[in-house]
Amino acid sequence: MKKYIEVRGARQNNLKNIDVNIPRDKLTVITGVSGSGKSSLAFDVIYGEGQRRFLDSLSTYAKSRMNQVKKPEVDFVFGLSPVIAIEQKKGILNPRSTVGTMTDIYDFLRLLFASTGEAACPLCDHPIPIRSSLQMIEHIQKLPEGTELEVLAPVYKLYGETYETTFDEIRAKGFRTLLIDGVRTNLSDQLELEEEAEYHIEIVVDKVIVKPDIYKVLNKTIENSLSLVGEGFIRFEIMSTPEGAAFDAKTFYAQFACPEHHLTMGEPQAQYFSFNDSDSACRTCSGLGTFMRAEARFLVRDKNKSINGGAIEPKLLSTSSKGTWIWGLVKSMAKHYGFNLDVPLKDMAEPVLDMLYYGTKGERFPFFTDESSTKTQFRHEGKMMNFAGFVHIINWWYKLFLNRQSSQGESDFYKKVMIEHTCPDCEGKKLKPQRFCVRVGGADIHEWSVMPLSELRSFLTRLTFKETKAHVGGQITKEIQNRLDLLLDIGLHYLSLGRRSDTISGGEAQRIRLSTQISSGLMGMLYVLDEPSIGLHARDSDRMIQTLKKLRDLGNTIIVVEHDVDTIRSADHIIEIGPGPGSSGGRMIAEGTAEHLAAAPESVTGAFLSGTRIIEIPSVRRPLTRMAIQIRGARANNLQHVDVDIPLGVLVCITGVSGSGKSTLVNEVMCKQLFSIFHDARIKPGEHDSLTGHEHLTGIITINQSPIGRSTRSNPATYVGFFDRIRELFAEEAGAAGSPLTKNDFSFNQKNGGRCENCQGEGIIVTQLQFMPDVEAVCPACKGARFNDEVLEIRLKGKSVADVLDMSIEEAVAFFEEQSYIQHKLKVLHQLGLGYLRLGQSSTTLSGGEAQRIKLAYELSKIKRGSHNLYVLDEPTTGLHLSDIQKLIDCMQQLVDAGHSVLVIEHHLDLIKVADHVIDMGPDGGRNGGTVVAEGTPEQVAGVEQSLTGKYLRQSLDQSGGEVKVGLLLH
User: What's this model's pTM, rounded to 2 decimal places?
Assistant: First the structure.
């Protein structure tokens, strides 16, 4: 068997025909400055070729049903194994995906509840047995022959719907007879129930007379009861028994059903507990746990106007059409309760506004008509009515909207007047309420899902089962425990199974995928990882390294693209690509151990490993002023009524272990509250008592790692905003040459302009093949230039517009030296270490870290004097080499020097140690976090014994020659 993965002649992207030997069954780290070609080697060449060869081995039929991979630019790769890439990309936008579904633990959990769960009566919570259909039939057959039974199933009113809607559903299923609070009722009769009242409703599914050949009929009846209407619950009511038969009803119900309500439960399947199954998911939110609800304040167009004058959203009360049913109800209410519809909304009494927004809450009033009323309304004159309220009317309309095909305009209306809330029906639990009547270990499936993983693991060790179910329960819990242990090993103890996947970071998602790979127990695999240390506190880095070694020790080859010094030192083999980014990179600089890199003269990473290069601590830190964002009583997620002042006019770092509450405090509470103040009042912040100090700010700008554009046409030049000026320069040249071309003709987005219409300005023609990878060919018309010949003839300093777009930012700085506007924006990009990117490089090829730095460059390039913005960055060191972090720090300091405030959520100690003020959250993650452990200068935080960040910061300051001052524990 080969000892190496041999790569020969790799020319992908900026790789310069390199040859590499990567040892098998070892942990190899590929490092180098940002843009040097690390990912090109690891993902495009090694992973891409491994994936392509695997897909090539499949049948033509299989290949026709999956996306194929393009062959990378490489001569050959020997020694490949089946390859799996675990990338650091968030990418999980499905709101139904959770930590539990990602790891398959929730599937085992559903199986556990279906196999070993114990049920309780949904009406009185009394324990009841779970019986199969066969067990129910055998029990009934013990009754005297001729006994008459009724088979009944409970039915539940839909949240927010009328009883009539519920009855319509029952009729549609073919049932006609109900018991409403014990009173027999026929659905063909006119039923008038109080909508606000609660009724106990049961469907009479069938009547059965006990006799020897009853099995088939009774089995069908039971199946209908359990699946069609009963939500798993069923009741057998004895109506009569033959004269003289010895029979005791108590004996029949004992140990078989609830002694008071006579309900028993059918055997649930695993799908019974799935929020992705339409029969089990909450009917209101369809298993999402959240629901859009109207907000009263968004229904008001102008509070200075009256209702008659158009104060309310026209879709509800249009001033041009006052004959609608809603207008009739509002006018009738005004007449009955004595309020004036010509009074401005701001002067109306609070009880009247409450009635308009939230209805009369069951209280009735007579319906009045006037000259604008319709014929239908005249027929209802004098009839007693109630009013649901504007908010409830919009909520009802929205439910109807979800059930039909509607226009985009209607969707936009609901987005304008509604806010996402926790589902009012299931309260965020996602399942129908009957599912929570089944418990394991005294807890329902939602209670299991919201426990932090560390608590859940402890809960499992204390779990016991009945003797008859111990063999099944023990086997399933063992599988759950094994998977939980892997998640705990990589520092994810603070997550819960119910945590939505779209709320976790890219680093957390990568570590979850890593844990699932270890649980598979495969050997002989090749794993390619992209910066697994991202989002990890220094305390948890060692856990991640041990996890990688565990995967290696199973007999696998691990290739990691990484900048983290601890991970690099722990590798069996290190490869450095460089020496610079872009066209100045793509070569093998050094390989071997950490000692080999430290001794290599060209190695930038080696200089940091040896300590000859370090990120310097500033000689003077900025003093704090009285300006601050003051947050009081923050209690969203795991925050424990946090009171904190975030200083303005300085560089502030929010630190803490994973799950300590950093992102919740900054993104959910502070940012959303400031966005609601400055931009959009519909944004709902996390729970808190108050936020003050915003008057010191002009605005808030968040710079995250989301893409700068979803289109392949979006690029750094268009995003940062200097491509328009480049087009103007070319248009001026065209005018000077007597050409009729305009600025628009130099855009590859403009139809029927100067772009190549054969490829529509893409430069390539993509041919989709059925069972082979899509073939990308250079456009034969423009030869990849994206523009037609007439446009390409226009030259600026000897370069066409296509040549300019193909320039690197570094080259463009020199090319546009006489254009101050373009030069300024290019220099900012270059200053942030992005000189290797091409001006026209597609945004879809940029990493999250590159996208974040382009956004930062955009903000830096348009700094205005006199404004005071708060810039919020979430882990901006992602994807950055140590040499590039210094450039990032310089740019952030530049923002602060220009009179702005910068707030960074960060784990990287080299960035934390240069901050003016540090706020450390913790002390741990999940329920053990959510408080401010320490705050002050990095030296002060380093002196706080209770701070985990302080412990590692102390070591970093010592290595940098900083003086550690004794800090105060402030919280």
Answer: 0.80
